[in-house]
């Protein structure tokens, strides 16, 4: 897999992971936020309902005690009064905890002070009600006043609690929308960033490719061949196998340019590059190293093998149909070959120099031939 594709897959995987993580987090938030806040207000509402129930109990147990002034009825009523006291405490605490607006509930809660002021007298009347029927009328009146006040308090608090819960739900909805929008924004930004990184890396890779590619023929250029040569030579040193280098030069190319024009010369170079590329092995490296000169690097190839391959190339170029050339019957190439052996020490400069000398010899001997240097 090429590095760009690997990076692209890595970025795509990271992006998918981010999308999943943010999506899950947003979903969990939206799902839970409303539920938790709702549960808080529900708990307080149930406290208020219990307060209302105790208020009704106060009326009922007062009537029972007045109708049947027995000790067990007195005890029941006294215990309800104790619960009413503690409920008042719990309710005040609940209001403070939920940070409700004191302006809204303050006047209502002030009524609790009124109830508190009356409770000691009410308890004392209840205490005496079994043995002293003369207190019944006062007890009845006072219990009714306390009950009315408590009923008013709890009904008002219910309304305040309900309004606050509705407000809280509205806020939660907005908050959820804000979080989801933020998540989408973050994802969009990350997406754009990843896309930009991918583009930049793509351009960098294309640029790197350009620096090692010949623009006319699309073959690797001289720089690419030098890089590959170094790797090939060190590999040859390690595995003890020979390596050959051929320099392939078009004959009388100037004539083609002069007679048919530069564009035709370009077309011939492209056709020659394509043809040579089709003839060489996968493991060989064919590069355009100069104007009308090509280099062929042949790893693990001795003199004999290299000469044979180059002879085949020369022969095939001679019979290559090139209808674009009007200046001469055919295009031919001269080839200089040099082979390096690890036991004799291989070095790029000497190998190149030998191949160049062989090419010179081929040209000198009349062109359209292969000359090898051991
Ligand atoms: N069309 C075209 N011509 C090129 C290119 N690069 C180099 N040339 C030409 O190739 C020709 C090379 O000429 P010479 O070095 O005299 O070599 P030659 O004419 O092939 O002669 P021998 O190599 O001695 O057989 C010159 O005319 C260059 O202008 C190119 O990219 N396109």
TrEMBL record:
Residue intervals of the GGDEF domain: 241-374
Name of this chain's protein: diguanylate cyclase
Segment forming the signal sequence: none
SMART domains assigned: GGDEF
Catalytic activity: 2 GTP = 3',3'-c-di-GMP + 2 diphosphate
Pfam families: GGDEF (PF00990)
GO biological process entries: cell adhesion involved in single-species biofilm formation; negative regulation of bacterial-type flagellum-dependent cell motility
Gene Ontology cellular-component terms listed: plasma membrane
Organismal lineage: Bacteria, Pseudomonadati, Pseudomonadota, Gammaproteobacteria, Chromatiales
Enzymatic class: transferase
EC number: 2.7.7.65
Entry cofactors: Mg(2+)
Segments traversing the membrane: 174-197
GO MF, one annotated term: diguanylate cyclase activity
Annotated keywords: Membrane, Transmembrane, Transmembrane helix
Coiled-coil positions: none
């Amino acid at each position: 897999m090429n590095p760009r594709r690997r990076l692209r897959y890595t970025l795509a995987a990271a992006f998918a992971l981010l999308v999943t993580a943010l999506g899950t987090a947003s979903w969990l938030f939206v799902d839970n936020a409303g539920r938790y806040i709702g549960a808080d207000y529900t708990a307080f509402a149930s406290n208020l309902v219990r307060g209302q129930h105790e208020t009704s109990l106060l009326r009922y147990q007062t009537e029972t005690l007045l109708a049947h002034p027995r000790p067990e009825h007195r005890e029941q009523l006294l215990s309800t009064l104790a619960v009413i006291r503690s409920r008042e405490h719990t309710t005040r605490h609940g209001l403070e905890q939920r940070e409700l607006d004191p302006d809204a509930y303050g006047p209502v809660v002030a009524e609790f002070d009124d109830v508190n002021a009356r409770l000691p007298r009410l308890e004392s009347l209840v205490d005496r009600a079994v043995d002293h029927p003369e207190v019944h009328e006062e007890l009845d009146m006072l219990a009714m006043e306390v009950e009315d006040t408590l009923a008013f308090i709890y009904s008002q608090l219910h309304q305040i609690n309900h309004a606050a819960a509705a407000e809280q739900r509205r806020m939660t909805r907005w908050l959820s929308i804000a979080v989801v929008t933020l998540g989408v924004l973050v994802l969009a930004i990350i997406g754009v960033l990843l896309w930009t990184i991918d583009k930049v890396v793509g351009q960098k890779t294309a640029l790197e490719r350009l620096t090692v590619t010949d623009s006319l023929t699309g073959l690797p250029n001289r720089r690419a061949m030098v890089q590959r040569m170094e790797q090939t030579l060190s590999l040859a040193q390690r595995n003890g196998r020979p390596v050959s280098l051929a320099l392939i030069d078009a004959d009388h190319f100037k004539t083609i340019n002069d007679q048919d024009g530069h564009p035709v010369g370009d077309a011939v170079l492209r056709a020659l590059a394509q043809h040579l590329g089709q003839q060489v092995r996968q493991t060989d490296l064919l590069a355009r190293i100069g104007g009308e000169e090509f280099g062929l690097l042949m790893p693990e190839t001795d003199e004999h093998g290299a000469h044979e391959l180059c002879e085949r190339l020369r022969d095939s170029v001679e019979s290559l149909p090139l209808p674009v050339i009007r200046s001469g019957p055919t295009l031919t190439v001269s080839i200089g070959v040099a082979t390096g052996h690890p036991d004799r020490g291989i070095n790029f400069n000497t190998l190149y120099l030998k191949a160049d000398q062989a090419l010179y010899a081929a040209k000198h001997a009349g062109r359209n031939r292969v000359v090898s240097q051991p």
